[in-house]
Specification:
With about 300 residues, this protein is of the alpha+beta class. Helix content is about 20%, strand content about 35%. The strands form four sheets. Strands 1, 2, 3, 4, 7, 10, 11, 12, 13, 14 and 15 form an eleven-stranded mixed beta sheet that branches. The chain has a five-stranded mixed beta sheet with strand order 16-18-19-20-17. A hairpin with a 2-residue loop joins β10 (about 150-165) and β11. Keywords: Isomerase, Lyase, tRNA processing.
């Protein structure tokens, strides 16, 4: 019989495993009754996949909206039908010639300004975006190419960390909805020789980092007490301001009632705690507007 477990597991997803497969494996390892992830990683990709258990699933949307950081390996000189190494090579193009490594690096660096800040990106056909209720990748597999509207994304930081020509490694911090495969293709197009993604590792999701994560093997082998792998529910929300309320106010919020406060309002989404000892004092989130707390997502205390 499954158990109610509330919290967050930071998984270092291995290559070859789907995000849903990772959720199932973690759910089974902890015998949890409810689990979900906070944004898909392609099977080829590795790295940070926060998995929400129990009541934490209510807050997974908050991490879907969060910025992400990736280490991306780009191979220049060829294009594939999927934009990554999983696909078939559809075009091979001559690589530009360079006098020396310094000239190569200078040219690669010159590409980055146009891929920094607010940019426009056309989503790939091999994606889970839906058209008429069907994911785009289903059309792509049937050989159908549909027109896709460009979408605005933000690249906060981008830099080359290693060059072993014709491959080069990028570190990219970006907004939600960014396709690193498309970024690799666009860099190749800008250089005139095509490119595709041959490796991808996610290192950050919002304020959560890969160095806090565990491999699926370490979780399944249970080398530690299960609680050492599970962060509390509010670990997802540490960037929000927090507020402590008394027991009467806490009960009103839990009943879905608004609670006026004699405090200067900060007009923001806040984490709410009851004035009792941790770790079971997190209530949920509320909108603090015009001096009144409006309950938003509360965790079940049952």
């Amino acid at each position: 019989m499954s158990t109610r477990i509330d919290g967050v597991v930071l998984l270092d997803k291995p290559a070859g495993m789907s995000s849903q497969g990772a959720v199932t494996a973690v759910k089974r390892a902890f015998n949890a009754d409810k689990a979900g992830h906070t944004g898909t990683l392609d099977p080829m990709a590795t790295g940070l996949l926060p998995i929400c258990l129990g009541e934490a699933t209510k807050y997974s949307q908050d991490l879907l909206e969060a910025d992400k950081t990736y280490i991306a390996q780009v191979k220049f000189g060829s294009r594939t039908d999927t934009g990554d190494a999983e696909g078939l090579i559809i075009e091979e193009l001559p690589l530009p010639a360079f006098e020396n490594d310094a000239a190569l690096l200078k040219l690669l660096e010159s590409l980055l300004p146009k891929f920094t800040g607010l940019i426009s990106q056309v989503p790939p056909m091999y994606s889970a975006l839906k058209r008429d209720g069907k994911p785009l990748y289903e059309y792509a597999r049937a050989g159908v190419e549909l027109e896709r509207a460009p979408r605005d994304i933000t690249i906060h930081k981008i830099r080359w960390t290693n060059v072993q020509w014709p491959e080069a490694t990028l570190e990219v911090s970006c907004s939600k909805g960014t396709y690193i495969r498309v970024l690799a293709e666009d860099l190749g197009n800008a250089l005139g020789c095509g490119a595709h993604l041959v490796g991808l590792r996610r290192t950050e999701v919002g304020h959560l980092t890969l160095d806090q994560s565990f491999t699926i093997e370490s979780i399944q082998n249970g080398g530690k007490d299960s609680s050492s792998y599970i962060l509390p529910v509010d670990a997802l929300l540490q960037t929000l301001p927090h507020l402590t309320v008394d027991e009467q106010q806490a009960k009103r919020l839990e009943m879905g009632q608004r609670v006026p406060l004699n405090l200067p309002s900060i007009e923001a989404l806040v984490r709410i705690y009851r004035a009792t000892a941790a770790p079971h004092n997190f209530i949920g989130t509320a909108d603090w507007r015009s001096g009144v707390l409006h309950p938003k997502r509360l965790i079940s205390q049952a």
